[in-house]
Amino acid sequence: MSLVDKLQIIKRRHEELGQLMSQEGLSGDEMVKLSKEYADLDPVVEVVNAYESALQEREDLAEMLEDPEMKDMAAEDALRLEKEIPELESKIKLALIPKDEADEKNAILEIRAGTGGDEAALFASDLFGMYKGYAAKQGWRMEVMEASESDIGGYKEIIAEITGASVFAKLKFESGVHRVQRVPKTETQGRVHTSAATVAVLPEAEDVDIQINDQDLRIDTFRSQGAGGQHVNTTDSAVRVTHIPTGIAVAIQENKSQHKNKDRAMSILKTKLYDMQRQELDAARAEDRKSQVGSGDRSERIRTYNFPQSRVTDHRINLTSHNLDGILAGEGLEDVVQALTADDQAAKLANLDV
């Protein structure tokens, strides 16, 4: 299908939605659904109209360029259009890329220490600090849902909820193995060690996304434990929720309230089940996604943080930055996020059938 044909389909759908929304008797849910689709198409149609106007203007100028008296004036406008039309085409093609329905969702961030013992736990803490700083810069809200600290500081595991605008769209390429190369605090010989931590960013599921049958759940309560095995309290407030069909289990002990821990565990469980569905769909489209950075493979080594050379390297797009401190503070992470997003868009544009 040609680009022009696709544009006409978009304009007709936009007009159809406007007519449907004006009808009486629509339910609230129907109106919300139509309004969202209409709002999503609004900016696309605006660019399409500008593009069509530019094409018509170029056609009109072709006649003026044949007129000796109008030629000079028309030539200036023609030069402007030669630059403007390709830019509008690029904007339209970007708008035609199929949207990830999860992009606007909040996210659950999971960071776990990998190889490297205590140093890996300290690195997991550094990564959490990086995302915390980035979230603050984006105006997002971050709340720790569960944390397991190591004996010397840092985290064996930490889970946080991040809420705000386009959280998953910004963070979805962060999933994978992050590697650090530096001299650990526990190293007496000054040797550089390599440690790792895994990051998983999951789009937060809503009740409409995932329905869970009560009979598919096993809920256990147990006593909360602190770092080093110390009791946080003497009541069985910690909760473990297991989804029997898949074997996915989520344990939460962060609150003294068993009810709150159960609610948080259910929220994470729904998110994991929703993510499992997305992973299955991604696997079905694997051939189309081979060149894209968002493969979703969480065992893949995606980035190295080299302290001796103050260097950060993202291996998926061969991006190297010497702004290690800025990136770990969160402020410099936006440059990496934008580069990953641009690379993903370029891959999708290459596969776009227009």
Largest sheet: 8 strands, mixed
> What is the helix tally?
9
Q: Compute the gyration radius: what is it?
A: 26 Å
**Could you say which overall geometry the principal axes of the C-alpha atoms support?**
flat
Describe this entry's structure for a reader:
About 2% of the residues have low confidence. Strands 2-3-1-5-4-9-10-11 form an eight-stranded mixed sheet. A three-stranded antiparallel sheet has the order 6-7-8, covered by helices on one side. The chain is an alpha+beta fold and 354 residues long. The longest helix is centred in the N-terminal third of the chain and has 37 residues. Helix content is 46%, strand content 21%. Helix 1 packs across helix 2 and helix 2 runs antiparallel to helix 3. The protein contains nine helices and eleven strands. It has three domains: 94 residues, no CATH class; 160 residues, Alpha-Beta Plaits (2-Layer Sandwich), CATH 3.30.70; 68 residues, Double Stranded RNA Binding Domain, CATH 3.30.160.20.
Summarize the structure.
With 354 residues, this protein is α+β, with helices and mostly antiparallel strands. The chain has helices spanning 3-21, 28-64, 71-96, 118-138, 167-171, 258-284, 286-289, 324-328, 333-350, and strands at 107-113, 141-149, 155-163, 176-182, 193-203, 217-222, 238-243, 248-252, 301-306, 311-314, 319-321.
